[in-house]
Amino acid sequence: MYFGSVRFFKHLIYTVFFGWLALATFFAIFFGVRYFMEAKQDKDETKLLNIPEGTSIEDLYLRMTALGYSPEDIMSLIENYDESSFRSYVMRYASSDPSFIISGETGDDVTAEASAPVVDSSAAYTKLYPDLYVENPATEFADDDGTIYLTFDDGPSSNTWDILYILKRYDIKATFFFCGGYDSETQELMKAVADAGHTVGIHSISHDYEKIYESVESYLADFYDTYQCVYEATGVKPRYFRFPGGSINNYDRFVYMQIIAEMTRRGFVYFDWNVSGEDAVHGATWSSIYENILTGIKNNTSDRAIVLLHDAADKTNTVYVLEDIIDKLLDDGYHFGQIDDTVRPITFDYVD
Question: What pLDDT score does 229 carry?
Fold first, then answer.
């Protein structure tokens, strides 16, 4: 009887022990596989976005922001994508550009090394300037093959009257991306351009690249100042704009996608160019501007051209060559148009 009881308890103990061991093993395997699959899914998601391997953390963040990912999802995916680069990324940019750093579990050691708090600025700029929106933004574009769009940046200036006179002679409407100004002469010139029926767009009132592209907020501040200046002078609420230096340049590398996304959300349309007179280049001459435009149009893969020229006080050669360019292009069978809601934008490609 005694030995039977001992044998029974031994079997019971073995059964309970191995039962718990099997159960613990099952849960360890289950949660281990689940963690692995979630981590793998995070890493695989970057592949679904068609983001090449080796893409920098900065570009990965910008791409995903432009695609509409929330900051929390972006930071989680980036951390799983490349943990060591993620930590380096936080440390490099937290103090110099807090808009890159999003609230979340990044670790106390990382934020301490960054010498800056982790802040949530993901949507702060969307609440700025609540009146800065386009009413009834464009939804579809027309066929405009064979059309040349003359566009003038940096005006108005002392050359604006001459440009307007030439355009009127040929009954051509163009597009002016204004820097603006509050003096009476500048205000009068902007009004004259609008009253003549040309398209009025926004460029930059400061034209200070380092300041403008410091952040999305600084870009919006400059844009809003320019917008108010132009609207006050012309009575026109501009719908189109051109980035100083073009949409992708050496100054806006870390913010251009966010700026584009925010301006698009507000209904504004930006235009780069596919032909340039290079009249802003030091040493530009009548001949160089003429050849640059005609060669650019001839070699252009598109059947239409948005031509970059400048309406600044020191660009007298632009005025001198304008009539000859118009004559030549009309002889070649082209016609001229102005930017409006029907014109498909020409924009620089995102840089991988």
Answer: 98
Q: What is the pLDDT of residues 40-75, one digit of tens each?
A: 444 444 444 555 555 555 556 555 655 556 655 665
Tokens of 86: 């993620």
**Contact between residue 179 and residue 205 where contact means Cβ atoms under 8 Å apart:** yes
For residues 59-98, one letter each, b for 16 or more C-beta atoms within 10 angstroms of the residue's C-beta and e for the rest, the string is bbbbbbbbeebebeebbbbbbbbbeeebbebbbebbeeeb
Residues of the chain under the 50 pLDDT cut: 1-3, 33, 39-48, 85-121, 352
The reported pLDDT for the residue numbered 108 is 38
Q: At what angle do helices 286-298 and 316-331 cross, to 10 degrees?
A: 40
- pLDDT attached to residue 226: 98
Rg (alpha carbons) of the chain, rounded to whole number: 30
pLDDT of residue 51: 52
* E strands, 273-324, in order: 275-276, 305-310
Exposed / middle / buried, residue 175 (Cβ in 10 Å: 0-12, 13-18, 19+) = buried
The reported pLDDT for the residue numbered 188 is: 98
Q: ω before 156 within 30° of 0 (cis)? A: yes
Rounded Cα gap, residues 49 and 337, in angstroms = 37
What is the predicted pLDDT for the residue at 138? Answer: 82
Nearest to 351 by CA among 234, 214, 270, 254: 254
In angstroms, the CA 280 to CA 282 distance is 6
Lookup result for tokens 């395997």: 29
Q: Are 151 and 309 in contact (CB under 8 A)?
A: yes
